[in-house]
Amino acid sequence: MVIVIAIALLTGCAAPTQLSFDVGESANPEPSMLGGNVTAAPIDRASIDPAPSPPSNDADDNTFNAVEIEERFASLIADWARCFHRPGACDVSLSTAPESPERMRLADALAYYATEQLRTKPNEGRLEWRIESISTSSEDRVRLITCEYDTRIFFDASMSDTELGDIILDATVWTRRVEWVLAKSNDTWRLWSRRIERRSPAEKFCKV
Length: 208
Prior knowledge:
single chain, 208 residues, alpha+beta, Nuclear Transport Factor 2, Chain: A, 5-stranded mixed sheet, 3 helices, 8 strands, 28% strand
């Protein structure tokens, strides 16, 4: 709240109370619901802050390497979130699997943000997350359940070249439980899909 007030004083504009940029909505989102936070640049740990958590994995899967999956996912979600710092410069092929639902959804979201001149900033809010479980049913698919606490701020950059600068567009704090699916492509895990199972702008139900 302190960050939001400080930025609002600097820009002279308050964040709208009705806008909701829920990052990663998967089922036919409206344009205002498309969102995300991270690009194809070096991982920004100030924006993506994974909380350590021992994941649970299938006991019967002898080939399942939970540590490897968790480390790879940390890199993927960092790249995914950074895409929205510079929406027009993100290469979605670096983090998403070919022909995946998430590649299509993320590309659409980035195109919308680029057109509307919307973006996040590396030091304005954080996406914290914790892996609650990891499971797999095949050699090329892994399912992760994560809980996220998202304080990232979304800006309208259309006035960035004026004395007003970037204007706060949405500062909603979201708590979300998310199902991610990773797919192995060319011996590398990439994002296949993202589905929000639960979300709240008021209740912080994640322990991150």
